[in-house]
Amino acid sequence: MEATDEGLMAAYRDGDAAAFDVLYARHRGPLYRYVLRGVKSAAIAEELYQDIWIRVIEARLGYSPRAKFTTWLYTIAHNRLVDHWRRKELVAAPAEEAEQLPAGAEAAPDRRAEGRQALRRLSKAIEALPHAQREAFLLHEEAGMTTPEIAAATGSAPEAVKSRLRYAYAKLQAAVWDEARDD
Amino acid sequence: MTEHDVEQAVSRRYRELAREEPPAPLDDVIRARARAARGPRGWYFPAAAAALLVLAVAVTVQIEREQPAPYVAARQDPVSSPPPVAAAEAERKEEAFAQAEAPARAMRDRAAAKAESPDQWLERIARLRAEGRHEEADAALVAFRKRHPHFVIPPEMLRRVEKK
User: Are residues A110 and A164 in the same domain?
Assistant: First the structure.
């Protein structure tokens, strides 16, 4: 039976380094994408991403598996991003310029160009979302978090999160539909 | 198209496209930090913190033991004022008491701040916010988040501590 995130974090807290490696492998991609789409700059995203994991490492001794590990991890991530935006005096949304669309799509060669174009369009649509809607969408998609979990991690009311998700999906669906029609 | 269908369609497209991952060297740095943290630091820092706490308490107790007996002001006799020498002595004692008390009080305040639970801390920030002391509230909130990065602030409390 596969170890739970909570079990792995508790094992790491108790000195098992291999447990951290497994946990890290599970969450590295989703957390990285969550941060990357929150700041839109690969260099800043990498710095914040590393900082979040260091906070996890430093907080390990106080870790207690009362809540889901994912909620704990993304609460740390959310707080780190909020700190970043505050330092940048960005109240509503981060304003860093998008450097470029990251590579990494592993589509078949004949679909690569089409895939990159689609990524560009969907990325733009996600980027255009209001900050709170984008964050709710990413936490749902990347971290697989439910509405109450997102509410807990971001310190928002569950009704507000539900509404943000509904608006976000509706706007992105419109973007996807436009994309298909244009193609 | 139902809300569920919309979510499924967007989700499918997003999964197809979003595949960025952190660079491998960054992975190596983080894994190395995790392994290093598990080493001697694992016990050294909590042990050092505990030793510091014991030392702080010992110093506080020592200062309190060594400070002069609290000065009790001489009863004022409306008819005869205390002689000037006695008044000067009283003043000197009062000053000595205040000097001895100051570091002990500061130490006790710091100890009290350290002993503050996250809920008490948030309640204090909410009070600052309610009193319009926004700069102090902002600073306290930043400090709180640094100290308790994983603490989930309940929505009701968040509304009270965050700037409107």
Answer: yes
Contact B6 A46 (CB under 8 A): no
For A:109-138, CB contacts with B below 8 A are 115, 118-119, 122-123
Q: Assess if residue A96 is contained within a domain.
A: no
Distance CA B86, CA A88 (A): 62
pLDDT per position as a tens digit, B102-132: 555 555 545 555 677 888 888 999 999 888 8
Domain span holding position A58: 1-91
Residues whose CB is less than 8 angstroms from the CB of residue B68 and which lie 6 or more positions away in sequence, other chains included: B93, B96, B97, B100
Q: Which of A24, A106, A119 sits opposite B30 (nearest CB)?
A: A24
**Residue A114 in domain:** yes
* pTM as predicted: 0.59
Q: How far is B149 from chain A (nearest CA, A)?
A: 5
Residue A3's identity, in one-letter code, is A
